[in-house]
Structures
1.
Amino acid sequence: MISLSEYKGLRDVILEKHHLVVGLFMNVLWPLSTNNHRIHARDVKKVFDELLSMYPHLPNSYMVCGHSVGGKIALLLASIIDPKRVSAVLALDPVDLNPIEFTNRKGSNLPLLDDDIENTATNDSIGPLAFFSGDGHADIVHVVVKGTDEQQAISKEGEKGENKRIPIILTCTDGGFGIPKAHNAEAIHKLHPATIFYRHAHAGHMVYCDNGGGAAGMLMPDVGTKEGSGKARESARDLIRQILGS
């Protein structure tokens, strides 16, 4: 439950690209339901439906950017709620909890491009579209990947028709209180290796907020360093520029 005012920096990057921005505040504690995340995802779809009815000249597709539980809601839109119209997803440190829908180690998970790439990942491996800097997980500081063959293939593949492969990009920080590693962005990517994964080490969960997440940030102390947080924040903005520039 983070105020929209905490995301002005990300909003302004989208406006730089002359795109329409619709910001939605979501109370993840309401309504009381076994799965209010899907309710919120359907609300996003309804907003887009209403926009199209009011402004029929708008494109019949939209990009979704969400942070924390908002990141999971963005994934739900691309997976099952509105997959034909979501053109790209940027899920910033998504949390797959209450309920678990993408990171079940036993049983079924909702799809995320799972038919688009041979699944060679296991529960202990990173998929083929993961990008790091450094020699290993402990050395990861920041990732800047522009114009790689993998990303070009994702942006260009299937440009015509309904089977276009959309970019679903996940970022993962060092986390914070209440975010188990078994259900964070890295866990999602391991089970859905066609997603694109960026590891933002030395940065905390609230790093993508302009002012630490406000009241919500008080419940989750910052675990990042000044350098790591700055690089992660700028990387998120670069990812938006890449998505909208492709």
2.
Amino acid sequence: LLSRASSCFRGVRLDLLEEKHIHGNSPSPEVHALATKIPLGTCDAFITHSWHDDPAEKWQALQRWRAAFRGTHGREPTIWLDRACIDQSNIAAELSVLPCYLAGCRSLLILCGPTWQQRLWCCVEIFTFVMMGGEEVHLEVFPRGGAFQPNFSEFDVDKCDAAVQEDKERLLACIDGASGSLNAFNEAVRTMLSRHCSVCAASNDEEIAPEVMTCPCPDSVPAHPSASLPESPPASPTPTVVGTLPSIASPLSAADEV
């Protein structure tokens, strides 16, 4: 699995994306072509989001995170975004190495809208992060703009929606076995996300500089920044995660991603 993940892992420079690229979740050769193969561990953030949430507001949240990242690191971030980085012609094989992809990113970025807590695949991703031993400092929570504020005290994996009921049952059984109980998992997620939500809420009030919202001309895009920037190595996928997650990821219906 690690070998396959290493050969297929892709990332996309955030300044190459435009808002239109996160409208709709149908396969897009144009969006996929923006991503390039990169080494595991050089991707700055794994993006977890719900396709049912407003794309314009997700884009605003993503730009807020981008502005903060640039202010800290002085460069553009490279992200893992499903529509850009998954080989849409071989989704089943790609999803089987999802834990390795997540472990190959330095942080988990939640673009949290009203439906994020309810989507099966979002629960799969946060479960992977928790099981991987993800540290809270690697977790970024940016609620979407407007009046919405997430209430993570109500997070309940048992309430996630799935197009195929068997997929949900498989996920719940895996979480129950790995966490001791669904309640234990829910409490761990509620505590972790609520703490970060309170820290990130203030950033939603910050205005985004106009230059952060635009993409540079192709000629102005420098070489991939990750190779020359020394940062802490990512967490390695543990045997538990590598052995457990593919058993629920591979058979899950692609319908649960929509």
3.
Amino acid sequence: MAAVQKSMSKKRKFVQDGVMYAELNEMLMHELAEDGYSGVEIRKTPMRTEIIIRATRTREVLGEKGQRIRELTSAVQKRFGFAEGNVEMFAERVHNRGLSAMAQAESLKFKLLGGLQVRRACYGVIRFVMESGAQGVEVIVSGKARVQRAKSMKFKSGFLITTGRPAQMFIDKATRHVMMKQGVLGIRLKIMLPHDPEGKNGPRTPLPDTVTILDPKEDKPLAPAPGGKGDEKAYAAGPRMGGAPPMQTQY
């Protein structure tokens, strides 16, 4: 297998890693939907592959005495052909679930499945996200919502950017499908994260158009005139250029 990996082109390797991430994300999304699943990160080292699961309820992800995480590790090992002991899974707690688009999309999904009205459920999610410190949030629900004709409803609050490199850094997206009795409802949720210098709740890099106004510097007192009292007038007047005496005008 090592010889196959060495001869593999970079293009094929990136495609293989992307397919693995997509399949793993899909599997964990179905398995840990009720436990606040918020994403997965894959770290590859020469010795082993580490998989970090981000969730709001890490105790349920680990299971009793770590049984559930061991079952997930075994399933991933068999599916992707890892050798024994070459893959390890960890659970990382999401500090602020109000800034996780996946967690809020799942919350909205279960609210709609519980029979709550679409407008009330969406406004509840928007209020919780904005109170958690987000700069903006947008929720789009499309499908048959209590009527026979399908339509799309958009709910928005705050400030959101949609294009450029900052949109890739600051916007967290999630999409979910709700299997209702009258049909399928689609949920698309966007959250604009705040700037966080520590990198916990948002990107460390500020927006490129951010203007920082600094406090004015304190005025320093002027230096006293050199010499005694007799030299103050001469210092204030200052010598003329060239040392020429002042011109006198006669009338």
